[in-house]
Design a protein that fits this description.
Layout (H helix, E strand, L loop, with lengths): L11 H4 L6 H13 L9 H8 L3 H13 L3 E8 L2 E8 L11 H4 L8 H19 L4 H8 L1 H11 L6 H15 L5 H37 L19
Antiparallel strand pairs: 1-2
Helix pairs in contact: 3-4, 7-8
Length: 236
């Protein structure tokens, strides 16, 4: 989605909607921001990356906004593909009679973890626009699915993973790399390979040093060559 980003802006009529949680107002503001006159074509994947929520959760929120008539939702077909179009159903007026869904304490409610994810997503989005996000934050925000797949393949093999992330961010800053997925993943893969190789080498050195220390302290393993019993052949 392309737009002239000037900050996180929630129009007055959206902000003043009564009995509507802040999360839903932010969704309305994002739909409004992406509507250039022909509607918002963003899919659930866009909202998922933007706010750090699952695609299913984003679908639920958009469905609720449509059922409550906050947005108009239509679908168009281009060949075999179907596209969803969202538009605000404004102007909005103050509501004096909340619907059953909005009164129900269990319906369409974000739990604390979802609220935290939403806040984190908005914070990282703003940092990226300001140019203050780290390389790792950029990868998390722009394509969390690709990063999750990378972590599944590599995280367990990388010791001291938090130190690795910090070192990766420092390397990207030092080398002043371009914040593009191709560039950042290329550097990430090279760094991960070197990190794992150096860690294995250090582990071998540590084990060797431990054996030496044990030798001097008298705590030698039974299988160590120095503990092997020497037998002498008798002269006949």
């Amino acid at each position: 989605m392309h737009r002239d980003f000037k900050g996180i802006w929630i129009p007055r009529d959206i902000w003043l909607i009564e009995n509507l949680k802040c999360t839903y107002r932010v969704f309305l503001a994002e739909i409004d921001s992406l509507d250039k006159g022909q509607g918002c074509y963003a899919g659930n994947g866009h909202f998922s990356l933007m706010f750090g929520l699952s695609k299913n959760r984003c679908s639920e929120i958009i469905t609720m906004l449509w059922e409550e008539k906050y947005i108009i939702m239509t679908h168009t077909k281009a060949g075999n593909k179907e596209r969803r179009i969202l538009k605000l159903n404004g102007p909005f007026e103050k509501s004096t009679a909340p619907s059953k869904n909005r009164l129900d304490p269990s319906a369409f409610r974000l739990d604390p973890s979802e609220n935290r994810q939403l806040n984190i997503g908005l914070e990282i989005h703003l940092k990226i626009q300001e140019g203050t996000a780290t390389a790792w934050e950029f990868l998390e925000f722009t394509n969390c699915i690709r990063l999750e797949a990378w972590l599944m393949q590599n995280k367990k093999a990388i010791p001291d993973f938090e130190d690795f992330k910090k070192y990766y961010n420092d390397i990207v800053d030092t080398e002043d790399l371009l914040f593009k997925e191709r560039v950042l993943y290329g550097r990430l893969n090279i760094l991960a390979t070197n990190w794992k190789r150096i860690s294995k080498s250090r582990a071998k050195q540590d084990k060797k040093q431990e054996q030496i220390n044990n030798l001097y302290s008298g705590e030698v393993s039974k299988n160590h060559p120095s503990r092997k019993k020497i037998t002498y052949a008798r002269n006949q």
